[in-house]
Amino acid sequence: MSKSKGPVLLFSVVLVLLSVGCGTGHDSDEKYFLVADNVQVPYWQTAKAGFAQAAKELKVRSEFVGPDTYDPQAEQAAFQKAVQQKPTGILISIADAKLMKPDIDKAISAGIPVITIDSDAPDSKRLLFIGTNNYDAGLAGGRRLAKELHGKGNVVFFSMPEQANLQERLRGYRDGLEATPGIKVDRVVDIKGDPRVAFDNATAIIGKERDKVDALVCLEAQAGKEIATVLSNNNVKNKVAMAMDTDPDTLEWIGKGVIAATISQKPYSMAYVGVMMLDHLYHHKIGKLDNDWATNSFAPIPAFVDTGSSLIDKSNVEAFLQEKNTVTGTQK
């Protein structure tokens, strides 16, 4: 993983600026929305905790909305409904960037600040993106995978190729494997937001391609536990499984040694910082929202806030769980 201090420094500067702005009073009319593409996924429950904590500290209203299953059209409808309420600001994780672009642009034109988190819509007029440097996350995963495979083997990836953040993770993985030409990417499976697709494909691989595939790598949160279940049910011990994010089942499979490692993002931080930035923008107007801030050398906002990522394996999974339980108030 890149050790560049740039994103860390930028993140620190953002927090300092926000803390300065938070000394002002807050209006009872302030209301912020977080729109997710699947509100039941543990990843988004963690983001919800960060979102709620920020709103509590600011004493403003907040609402977490989105579909109960992965559904880009339903997410679009939830965003449109939020816009109709003329909120102070909206955070959204993008399931389909092309689908959401017109709605985001319309909200910006109406004076409603929109910040993307976790997954971006870079061609829209959203103000900025807060999330993981997905390329760096994939790069770290690729380097770890190369060690797990001892430089040789065939890999199947499980992803949703239409999502820009997952494309970046795959690019990072490929580059991380570049130094080990003995490792080949066999194919990328599109799970289409349905973990059952990952389960079925992993089952087929274990049944028909047991000797062909050496590693099964998940670029999104839901597939890891499905693949681990398949490996465990079939008593397969000679395959490397790599996951993404910190679903409780994923962490349990790491503890059992079925999944070698997962890449942890920071959804709590994304949502927390997102609300703080929206609140700052409300109390400290930046003028027209639809300026091209990304290319403006004197922009009052960053184009990208990198919240970071880290590898979790058997050596640090318990420490991660203890910290998560402390912050979110959940039980292991």
CATH homologous superfamily label of the largest domain: Response regulator
CATH architecture of the largest domain: 3-Layer(aba) Sandwich
Structurally, how many domains make up the residues? 2
Helix percentage range: 40-55%
Largest beta sheet: what is the strand line-up?
2-1-3-4-5-11
**What is the level 1 CATH name of the largest domain?**
Alpha Beta
By DSSP (H or I, 4+ residues per run), the number of helices equals 11
Shape: elongated
Mean pLDDT figure: 91
Distance, first to last CA = 28 Å
Largest sheet: 6 strands, parallel
The CATH topology assignment of the largest domain is Rossmann fold
- Flag low-confidence runs: 1-5, 19-23
> What are the secondary-structure elements, in order, as H or E?
HEHEHEHEEHEHEHEHEHEHEEH
Strand content: 15-25%
Secondary structure class reads alpha/beta
Please give the number of β-strands.
Answer: 12
Explain the overall architecture.
This protein has helices spanning 6-21, 42-58, 72-84, 97-109, 134-148, 164-177, 195-208, 223-233, 248-255, 267-283, 317-328, and strands at 31-35, 61-65, 89-92, 114-117, 129-131, 153-159, 183-190, 215-218, 240-244, 261-264, 304-306, 310-312. Strands 2-1-3-4-5-11 form a 6-stranded parallel beta sheet, sandwiched between helices. Strands 7-6-8-9-10-12 form a 6-stranded mixed beta sheet, with helices on both faces. The chain folds into 2 domains: 6-132 and 266-308, Response regulator (Rossmann fold, 3-Layer(aba) Sandwich), CATH 3.40.50.2300; 134-264, 3-Layer(aba) Sandwich (Rossmann fold). The protein contains 11 helices and 12 strands. Strand 6 (153-159), helix 6 (164-177) and strand 7 (183-190) form a beta-alpha-beta unit. The protein is of the alpha/beta class and 332 residues long. Mean pLDDT is 91; it is low at 1-5 and 19-23.
